[in-house]
C-alpha cells in the first residue's frame, strides 16, 4: 500500500471511528420515535405462544424490510423454475385430511422455484449460499405452498430478527460489496453476536451450500407445521424433498471457477435436463411427532434452528414430484410467482414457531409492493385451479370482472353469495389449539441451546467433509478485516468443536481458546452426503477427442454411456466434425475455448494426435482440473499414454484401458462415485 493510500485509509478509518463514537449510546426506537425495550423477540401469548397481531414494532420493522427493494425480491432474487406434477404413493389420512395427501388416484400440478438467497438477479449461481426450494401445489382445494430451503434449519429463531440478518448478509451499504457472498465483516459480526445461528452456519460452511445441481439438492420445509386429520387429531410434521439422484455438491475452487465460466450453470443444468427428457425427481417425505410427544426430545420441536434427527424421527416417504416442463416465459412465471407459507389447505395448519409466525405476515406484505398490489393471485402462475369467490374488489392489476351490486358479507340482495363453507363442505378451520399466557417479548428457555445440534452436524460429517468446513471458515474469515470479529467467531465455534476452531483459527492467524469443545457425541449419518445415492445417471462427461481417434472403440463406449444414462459431450480444438483413423466421423459439441472441465462431472481422453501441441496441452489441462477437483478421469489409447506421462494413473478414480467394454464399465462405476476424496492426500 502506498503512503498516499495508507493516509487516505487512516483518515477514512478515523472518520468511521468518529461516527461510531457519535452513535454510541443512542437508544433504539420505532420510526415514530418510541424507545423500545426489546428488539430480539416478537410479542407472543406466552413464551411458546403465537405471535400477536398487535405487535406494532414487529409489523413496522418487517413492513419496512419487505418494501426495501423494487422490483426484484429482497432475498431469493436469483431464481429459476419449472413445472411438474406430484403423485402420492400412499394415503396419509391417519395424519391429515388434505385431499392431495390422501387420494392416491390424483396427480397434483406443481411449480417449483429454486434460488440463491443473498445475491441480486444478476449474480452468479454457484456462490456459497443457502438455496430456496419453494413448491406450489395446485390442489383442488386451493393452492398449497411449501416454501423451504435446501438446509433444514435457519439462522434465527424469531422473525423480528430477519431484517437484521439480511442487512448483515447483504453487500455492505457504504460500498455495496461484496455481491452474493457472506465472506465479509458485517455478516460474521452478526453471527458472533447472535449465536443461535451456530447450527445454520455449520450447514452454510459445508458442501451443502455449493450444490452440484438443483436436481441433486434436498429440500426442507424448515419449520414445524401441523397436520390435522378428519377426527381433528393434530400431529407435528416436518417436510422433506429427497432427490432421486442423491445429494451432491461441487468443491469450492470449482464453484468459484464455474461462476466465471458459466454464471448460469444451475439454471442451464435444470433447463437442459428437462428439455432432454431427464426429468428431475424428488420424493416427498414427512417426519411426524404426535402432539402428546411434544416435550419428549432434547430439543424444542418448534425451534427453527433445530432439526429432528432422522434416526430419532424417521422420514416416511409418501410420494414423488417430477419436474417435466420448462417455463414458457421467465418473467411471467418465475419472477411473478408469489409463494406464501400461509397458503394452506384443510388438514395443514401452523405451529407457534416464532419464525414461521412472522413469515405468515411478511410474505403477503412483500408481494403487495413487488407485484403492484393485492391482486397478485390473479396472475396466471398464481391462479388456483379451483374456482375462487369472495367480496374483495378493485385494486391494482384487477383481472376479475365482478357482476352485481353486492361486495359484502352478509347480504340479502345477492342471496348471501358467496357464503361460507362448513367444515363438512371443505371449509378451512384452524386447529383449536389451547393458548394461554401473558403477553411477553421473550424466548422460551427451551430455545437457548445453540450448540448441541451444531456439534451433532460436525460429528456426522466424513473426514473430507470436515476438512471442507474448516476450509470454508478459513476462506470466509480470511476476508474479514476486523480481527475482533474473527476472534469472536473462533471463540464461538470452540463451543461446537475444538478441532473445528483450531483448524480454521490457525489458518486466519489466531489461536483457539485453551478450553471449550462439546460433550455431545451423538451423530446422524443421514446428514453426510457420503451416505447419499450414488448414480451415474445424467452425469456429464467431457470426451476429449483429436484427429485419428479409434472410431469403433469410441462408439462402443458411447453406447455403454447411453445405456447407463451418462451424458457424453465431445470436446476438441475446433468446431465441426472429426474423422477417426477408420473413417468414423463425430460432431464436436464444444471447443476448448467454449467449454471448461469445471462444467463437467468427469473427463475422458479418448485419444487423438498427441503431436498436435495445442490439443495435447488442452487435454492435460482438462485432466489436471478434473484431478484437482477429485473427479473421475478416463483414458484410452493415446489418452492412456498422456495420463501416464503426467502421473495421473495409479490414483483412485482414474481409469485407463483399451478394451472398450471393460473400460466403459469401470469408468461408469467411477462416475457413479461422483468424487474420489483420497486424492486430497496427494
From TrEMBL:
SMART domains: Catalase
InterPro entries: Catalase (IPR018028), Catalase_AS (IPR024708), Catalase_clade2 (IPR024712), Catalase_clade2_helical (IPR043156), Catalase_core (IPR011614), Catalase_haem_BS (IPR002226), Catalase_immune_responsive (IPR010582), Catalase_large_C (IPR041399)
GO molecular function per UniProt: catalase activity; heme binding; metal ion binding
Region annotation (Disordered) ranges: 1-33, 513-532
Gene3D superfamilies in UniProt: 1.20.1370.20, 3.40.50.880, Catalase core domain (2.40.180.10)
A Pfam family this chain is assigned to: Catalase-rel
Function statement: Decomposes hydrogen peroxide into water and oxygen; serves to protect cells from the toxic effects of hydrogen peroxide.
Protein name: Catalase
Amino acid at each position: 500500500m502506498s503512503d498516499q493510500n495508507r493516509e487516505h485509509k487512516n483518515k477514512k478509518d478515523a472518520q468511521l471511528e468518529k461516527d461510531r463514537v457519535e452513535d454510541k449510546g443512542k437508544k433504539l426506537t420505532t420510526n415514530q420515535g418510541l424507545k423500545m425495550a426489546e428488539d430480539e423477540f416478537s410479542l407472543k401469548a406466552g413464551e411458546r405462544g403465537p405471535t400477536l397481531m398487535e405487535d406494532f414494532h414487529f409489523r413496522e420493522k418487517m413492513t419496512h424490510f419487505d418494501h426495501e427493494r423494487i422490483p426484484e425480491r429482497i432475498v431469493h432474487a436469483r431464481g429459476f423454475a419449472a413445472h411438474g406434477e406430484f403423485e402420492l404413493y400412499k394415503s396419509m389420512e391417519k395424519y391429515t385430511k388434505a385431499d392431495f395427501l390422501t387420494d392416491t388416484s390424483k396427480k397434483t400440478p406443481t411449480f417449483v422455484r429454486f434460488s440463491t438467497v443473498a445475491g441480486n438477479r444478476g449474480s452468479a449461481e454457484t456462490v456459497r449460499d443457502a438455496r430456496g426450494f419453494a413448491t406450489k401445489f395446485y390442489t383442488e382445494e386451493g393452492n398449497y405452498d411449501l416454501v423451504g430451503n435446501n438446509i433444514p434449519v435457519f439462522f434465527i429463531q424469531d422473525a423480528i430478527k430477519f431484517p437484521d440478518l439480511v442487512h448483515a448478509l447483504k453487500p455492505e451499504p457504504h460500498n455495496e460489496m461484496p455481491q452474493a457472498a457472506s465472506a465479509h465483516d458485517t455478516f460474521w459480526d452478526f453471527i458472533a453476536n447472535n449465536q443461535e445461528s451456530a447450527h445454520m452456519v455449520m450447514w452454510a460452511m459445508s458442501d451443502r451450500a455449493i450444490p452440484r445441481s438443483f436436481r441433486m439438492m434436498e429440500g426442507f420445509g424448515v419449520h414445524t407445521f401441523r397436520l390435522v386429520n378428519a377426527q381433528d387429531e393434530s400431529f407435528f410434521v416436518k417436510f422433506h424433498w429427497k432427490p432421486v439422484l442423491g445429494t451432491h455438491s461441487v468443491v469450492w475452487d470449482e464453484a468459484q471457477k464455474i461462476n466465471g465460466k458459466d454464471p448460469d450453470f444451475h439454471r442451464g443444468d435444470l433447463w437442459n435436463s428437462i428439455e432432454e427428457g431427464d426429468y428431475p425427481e424428488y420424493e416427498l417425505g414427512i417426519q411426524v411427532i404426535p402432539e402428546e410427544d411434544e416435550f419428549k426430545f432434547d430439543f424444542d420441536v418448534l425451534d427453527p434452528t433445530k432439526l429432528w434427527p432422522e434416526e430419532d424421527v424417521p422420514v416416511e416417504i409418501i410420494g414423488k414430484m417430477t419436474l417435466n416442463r420448462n417455463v414458457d416465459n421467465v418473467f411471467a412465471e418465475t419472477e411473478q410467482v408469489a409463494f406464501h407459507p400461509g397458503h394452506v389447505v384443510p388438514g395443514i395448519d401452523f405451529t407457534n414457531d416464532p419464525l414461521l409466525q412472522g413469515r405468515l405476515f411478511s410474505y403477503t406484505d412483500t408481494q403487495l409492493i413487488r407485484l403492484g398490489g393485492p391482486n397478485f393471485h390473479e396472475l396466471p402462475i398464481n391462479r388456483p385451479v379451483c374456482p375462487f369467490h369472495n367480496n374483495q374488489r378493485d385494486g391494482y392489476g384487477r383481472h376479475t370482472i365482478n357482476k352485481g351490486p353486492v361486495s359484502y358479507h352478509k347480504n340479502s340482495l345477492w342471496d348471501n353469495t358467496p357464503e361460507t363453507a362448513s367444515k363438512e363442505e371443505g371449509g378451512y378451520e384452524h386447529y383449536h389449539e389451547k393458548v394461554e399466557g401473558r403477553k411477553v417479548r421473550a424466548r422460551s428457555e427451551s430455545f437457548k441451546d445453540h450448540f448441541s445440534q451444531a456439534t451433532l452436524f460436525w460429528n456426522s460429517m466424513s473426514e473430507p467433509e470436515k476438512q471442507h468446513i474448516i476450509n470454508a471458515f478459513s476462506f470466509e474469515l480470511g476476508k474479514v478485516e476486523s480481527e475482533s470479529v474473527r476472534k469472536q467467531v473462533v471463540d464461538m465455534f470452540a463451543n461446537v468443536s475444538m478441532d473445528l476452531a483450531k483448524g480454521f483459527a490457525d489458518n486466519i492467524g489466531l489461536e483457539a481458546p485453551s478450553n471449550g469443545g462439546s460433550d455431545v457425541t451423538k451423530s446422524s449419518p443421514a446428514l453426510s452426503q457420503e451416505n447419499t445415492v450414488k448414480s451415474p445417471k445424467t452425469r456429464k462427461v467431457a470426451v476429449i477427442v483429436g484427429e485419428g481417434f479409434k472410431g469403433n472403440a469410441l462408439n462402443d463406449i458411447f453406447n455403454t454411456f447411453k445405456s447407463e444414462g451418462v451424458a457424453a459431450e465431445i470436446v476438441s480444438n475446433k468446431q465441426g466434425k472429426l474423422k477417426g483413423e477408420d473413417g468414423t466421423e463425430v460432431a464436436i459439441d464444444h471447443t476448448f475455448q467454449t467449454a471448461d472441465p469445471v462444467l463437467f462431472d468427469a473427463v475422458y481422453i479418448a485419444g487423438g494426435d498427441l503431436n498436435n501441441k495445442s490439443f495435447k496441452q488442452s487435454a492435460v489441462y482438462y485432466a489436471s482440473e478434473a484431478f484437482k477437483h477429485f473427479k473421475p478421469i478416463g483414458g484410452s489409447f493415446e489418452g492412456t499414454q498422456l495420463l501416464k506421462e503426467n502421473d495421473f494413473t495409479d490414483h483412485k478414480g482414474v481409469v485407463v484401458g483399451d478394451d472398450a467394454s471393460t473400460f466403459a464399465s469401470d469408468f461408469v462405476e467411477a462416475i457413479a462415485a461422483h468424487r474420489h476424496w483420497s486424492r486430497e492426500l496427494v
